[in-house]
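Quick question: who can interpret this fold?

. . .
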Amino acid sequence: MGGSKLSCAKHSAGERGFTLIEALVALAIIATVLSSIGAVIGTTVQGTRTINQRLMLDGAAETLLAALPGRNALRPGRQTGELAGHRWRIDVAPISGASGDTRPSRFVPLAVNMWMQGPSGAQILFTTVRLVPKATE
C-alpha cells in the first residue's frame, strides 16, 4: 500500500459545467432584467408620490371651498392666504348677464375662482358659481 495517487478522471461532455461565456451571458441577462424591474419600481414610486401630492392638494382645496362664507355673506373681491403649507387665492366676481334673459331674478350669480399651489409646486384651479341674493335697492 503505497501513498495516495491523484487520479485525473476524465469528464464526459455532459458533466463539464458552464463555460465562461455562458456565465457572462447569464449575468448580462440577469442584469438587464433587474434594471428593468428597477425602472418599473422607480416609475411606480414617482406615480404614487404624484397621486399623494394631488390628493393632499385636492383635500386642502375642498376644505377651503367648504369654508367659504355663506350665500348671504359672500361678496366680490380677492382673498389670499395659506392653509397647511398650500398658498391660495380666491377671486369672487359677478357674472355678466350675457344670456339675454331679461326676467327679474332675486339672485345674482358670482363666479368663484380658487387657485391653490401645494408645497411641491403643483397647482390646481377650481371654478364654481354661487348664487347670492340681490342687494335690496
